[in-house]
Amino acid sequence: MIRRDRVFQTTANIIMIVLMLYCMLPLLLLFASSITEERALIVNGYSFWPSRIDWSAYKYILIDSTQIVRGYGISAVVTLLGTVLNLMLTTLFAYPLSRKDLPGKTVISFILFFTMLFNGGLVPSYIMWTQLFHIKNTFWALLVPNLMMGAFNVIMMRTYFASNIPTELIDAAKIDGSGEYGILARIILPMAKPILSTLALLVGLGYWNDWLNGLYYVNQDRLYSIQVLLNRMLMDTQFLMSSAAQKMSVDTSQLPSTGIKMAIAVMGILPVLVVYPFLQKYLVQGITIGAVKG
Q: Which domain holds residue 144?
């Protein structure tokens, strides 16, 4: 029996090591490619060990370090504020839907689910946000469209409330004289930490990685998030490559176009790689909490 357990443990460790390498090796290849000289990258292809180390891609990105710092700051503020607002709206929507005594619950649930299947499209959405709400070139353009609240998150939180919070606790709180807001603040939210942490991580990643809102609704440098800024740098590099190829006055192999793409990816995911290990336990707990009964 002991030997069988050891064999199982050894096999499980080997599988986990393989999965870890499967996740880590692409990131290592990405970083190695970002510091490889452009000519060596074109001739020799991608390699985990750069034949010639060249930091030109990062030098190009960091030409204006002030702009990079501002982009990181805007992304951080948007991510924090957007995550908090998203959780507030999602909770205030999901909690009533989890109650069996909500009038019109079926109709509201249908309307919520309907938004997951159909939407007006990009052009009507753009007209609505720019002409009706006038958010273009404002800070709200990075916060509100597409990210402020999602039907899937509401359904996930509603299911958690209905499945994991006993109605007896709510009834006991009512008997003690607590109102709906008191029940939500003192009973529901403390018991909903796993799902709140899970959604906070997912929503935060969505805000941090978003660049479409900046592409559609922002054209001022002072409002560029880090993702929008890096995307603009990438487009500038492509323009430089095409211009050089047309004029034939610059050796295009010396321009770190491929390395810049890799460096941009590294710059974009670096904060996430730093923060994620501290939050992954909440993600796992929130996803698996519904599988444990009792």
A: 62-291
Q: Are 145 and 125 in contact (CB under 8 A)?
A: yes
- Between CA 224 and CA 141 the distance in angstroms is 11
pLDDT tens-digit readout, 221-231: 888 888 888 78
Number of domains in the chain: 1
- What pLDDT shows up at residue 80? 92
Phi-psi region of 292 (alpha: psi -120 to 50; beta: other; left: phi over 0): beta
Q: pTM score, two decimals?
A: 0.76
Q: Are 96 and 102 in contact (CB under 8 A)?
A: yes
Asked whether residue 13 is domain-assigned, the answer is no
Residues 119-139 as b or e (16 or more Cβ within 10 Å = b): eeeeeeeeeebbeeeebbeee
Inside any domain, residue 182:
yes
CATH of the domain at 158: 1.10.3720.10
Asked, for residue 39, whether it belongs to a domain, the answer is no
21-36: per-residue pLDDT in tens?
888 888 888 888 888 8
Chain position carrying tokens 């501290």: 278
Higher pLDDT, 160 or 61: 160
Q: Is residue 4 domain-resident?
A: no
Mean pLDDT for 260-271 is: 79
